[in-house]
Amino acid sequence: xxxxxxxxxxxxxxxxxxxxxxxxxxLELCHNLKVHNGRLAVVGDVVTPSxxxxxxxFDRVFVGQxxxxxxxxxxxxxCSSAMSVIATATTTAPVVPWxxxxxxxxxxxxxxxxxxxxxxxxxxxxxYSGSALLVCRTIANYRGQLVCGSPTGYDPNVVLWGDxxxxxxxxxxxxxxxxxxMPWSGYVYDVRPFGSYxxxxxxxxxxxxxxIDSSPPGFGLLNFSSVGLKSVGAIGGSLHKQLHMRSDGQxxxxxAEKQRPHFYEIKELDYGExxxxxxxxxxxxxxxxxxxxxxDGVEAYVLTTEGLSSTSxxxxxxxxxxxxxxGLSQTSTDTSAYVRTQVLDLGLRGRKDIEVIxxxxxxYWRTQVExxxxxxxxxxxxxxxxxxxMGTARNKVSGEEFKIKLLSTxxxxxxxxxxVRLKRTDKRFVRGLDASQAAAKxxx
Length: 444
Prior knowledge:
The chain contains one helix and 38 strands. The chain has one helix at about 435-444, and strands spanning about 5-10, 25-30, 35, 40, 60-65, 70, 75-80, 85-90, 100-105, 105-110, 115-120, 125, 140, 145-150, 160-165, 180, 190-195, 195-200, 205-210, 220-225, 235, 240-245, 250-255, 265-270, 280-285, 290-295, 300-305, 310, 315-320, 325-330, 335-340, 350-360, 365-370, 380-385, 390-395, 395-400, 400-410, 415-425. Strands 1, 32, 35, 36 and 38 form a five-stranded antiparallel sheet that branches. About 40% of the residues are buried. Mean pLDDT is about 90; it is low at about 440-444.
């Protein structure tokens, strides 16, 4: 029988909608391994600020100009530069994810129920009791200007901005302050700077606001989507890169040029099938590694620049501080890593025998081959065979189509490639001389 080999490189993560069902790089399963530098690597967890603890998906960690903060449930923890809690403020329970407008020694928090401010003299956090600021669902600092979404006393689709350099929202104090209803209904879920714009993410749409030089000054509106977000929290990112999940589960990436921040690109990523059934979503961003973490509180995924994979780390928020990724996540004991390919016919139609699977990577791996032929409608599981110290497993299975699963419990497991060694048993699909025929002919 003729022997062949089929190399397979792990460089794509979970399949996208556009990847074909046979012999494609996209995987049906890819768990606790992220696509990084053309291979599947370990997914790391966050370090919880000392003295803080995860409460819900509304939790947020902020690195401010003068201090750091961990907002966990009904607590705002003031943290040192080493992310250790040094003071605590008790708050009301949040009804939306915490957001923070940082103005250096002064700052404003909102949890959708009440505002809390940072004292510019003592750094202490307390409930706001003045009248210049309005309770809102989301708040941000845009170039020294306070911007908020869904403020009290206005329709839920309104974005309001204050005077430059002042923490106030009163329309009577300055001609600079103003407000604008978005061209879609529903709540404003999030406002945040994006390039030279203010990105507005809502229940029923997404828009960009850009400051215009006019008399009086104000903002121009660009409404680029009438499809809203999956839920509050379904947006994460930085000044130049932001990812949001639409209500249909589709992921949309906005990327602004750093040198020309008014230029930007919109990319729709074909991963909607993985999130279509989610009812809520939360997205956080690791800027140092350029990775997004997505979770609904039950499942979780990590999206790198090279692909998507599932993970047991249910991260609600993260920030980089002095080379360490701090954040808040739910505790998980799942350390298993596994992948499963889509349908493989190994480049050959007809029946063939898999003889050996060679695994290139780190850690201890077990192999399992699911097989199917023309007489079976479902894939049948084969035996689980562990690799030897050389990374090979003699996992003999016959069939016409296969799915190959690799499993590991090693904490440092990685995958680069695998090579499937097989023999052709269906001679109707063999052209030319196989090895045995060639040897017999040379002996004559």
